[in-house]
């Protein structure tokens, strides 16, 4: 199936590994040109070399609104514009209510909420003017079913989901779709960190008895960026192997 992404220009945040890298790889496979960012110059340069000549590495820290805005500006300069934006960032430190000081929430909100807001503010006006755009945010299934001991991530990502839903309704008539994907337990460095490297134990928490693949996740991102997905907007879709147990 031709997803209509050939020649499109995509900015994928936090893509030196994991779900960001899987998303960039899938978009490139569909003919898009991609700008990817990461904080570590060596890692993001290596990732771009692995992806090929249509991947442009950018050193940027999207953990602050300023860094997030700078990434979109750099992606626009590298690609000549941004048609597709995939927002993504690492996760804040684990911890529950009693162990998490009030001051810790500000950094978590910058990382997982304000970075998304800033990237959208930087990219959406151009998309609206052109009459076409795709935004896909990588959040977490914790938005639906909060994870124990991850109060910072649960809080910030829920706020991002509300922002994205509101934005989707405002820009839908301009040909811009806004959706979020909610990953569960995928085989990423973040999961290995949270589970002390024991992915088999993590897999036992999933009905499929497997952890997710960044490559399969990336394929879903690419579909939401496609011309065929033009009527899908404002959606928050879990990609979690059936882990979420709720009805809605």
What does this structure look like?
It is a single chain. The chain has one domain (9-239): NAD(P)-binding Rossmann-like Domain (Rossmann fold, 3-Layer(aba) Sandwich). The mean pLDDT is 96. Strands 3-2-1-4-5-6-7 form a 7-stranded parallel beta sheet, with helices on both faces. It has 248 residues and is α/β, with parallel strands linked by helices. Helix content is 44%, strand content 15%. Strand 1, helix 1 (18-29) and strand 2 form a beta-alpha-beta unit. It is globular, with a radius of gyration of 17 Å.
Termini separation: 30 Å
Task: Please give the CATH architecture.
Answer: 3-Layer(aba) Sandwich
**Portion of residues within helices:** 40-55%
Uncertain spans: none
Q: What is the name of the CATH superfamily?
A: NAD(P)-binding Rossmann-like Domain
Mean pLDDT figure: 96
Q: What global shape is seen?
A: globular
Using the CA coordinates, give the radius of gyration: 17 Å
Order of helices and strands: EHEHEHEHEHEHHHE
Strand order across the biggest sheet?
A: 3-2-1-4-5-6-7
Number of individual domains = 1
What CATH calls the topology is Rossmann fold
Structural class based on helices, strands and sheet pairing? alpha/beta
Strand percentage: 5-15%
Number of helices: 8
CATH class: Alpha Beta
Largest sheet: 7 strands, parallel
Q: Tell me how many strands there are.
A: 7
Give the helix/strand layout.
Blueprint: E1 9-12, H1 18-29, E2 33-38, H2 41-51, E3 55-59, H3 65-79, E4 84-87, H4 103-130, E5 133-138, H5 151-171, E6 176-183, H6 189-194, H7 199-203, H8 214-224, E7 236-239
Parallel strand pairs: 1-2, 1-4, 2-3, 4-5, 5-6, 6-7
């Amino acid at each position: 199936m031709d997803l209509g992404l050939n020649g499109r220009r995509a900015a994928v945040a936090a893509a030196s590994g994991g779900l960001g890298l899987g998303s960039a790889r899938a978009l490139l496979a569909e003919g898009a040109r991609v700008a990817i960012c990461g904080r570590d110059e060596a890692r993001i340069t290596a990732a771009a070399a692995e992806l090929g000549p249509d991947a442009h590495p950018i050193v940027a820290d999207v953990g602050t609104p300023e860094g997030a805005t700078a990434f979109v500006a750099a992606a626009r300069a590298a690609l000549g514009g941004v048609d597709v934006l995939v927002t993504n960032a690492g996760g804040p430190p684990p911890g529950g209510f009693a162990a998490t000081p009030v001051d810790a929430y500000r950094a978590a909100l910058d990382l997982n909420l304000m970075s998304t807001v800033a990237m959208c503010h930087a990219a959406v006006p151009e998309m609206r003017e052109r009459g076409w755009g795709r935004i896909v945010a990588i959040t977490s299934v914790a938005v639906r079913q909060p994870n124990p001991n991850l109060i910072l991530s649960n809080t910030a990502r829920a706020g991002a989901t509300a922002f994205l839903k509101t934005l989707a309704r405002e820009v839908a008539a301009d040909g811009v779709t806004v959706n979020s994907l909610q990953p569960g337990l995928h085989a990423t460095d973040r999961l290995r960190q949270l589970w002390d490297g024991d992915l088999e134990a993590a897999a036992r928490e999933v009905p499929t008895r497997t952890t997710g693949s960044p490559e399969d996740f990336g394929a879903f991102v690419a579909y939401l960026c496609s011309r065929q997905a033009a009527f899908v907007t404002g959606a928050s879709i879990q990609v979690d192997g059936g882990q979420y147990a709720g009805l809605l």
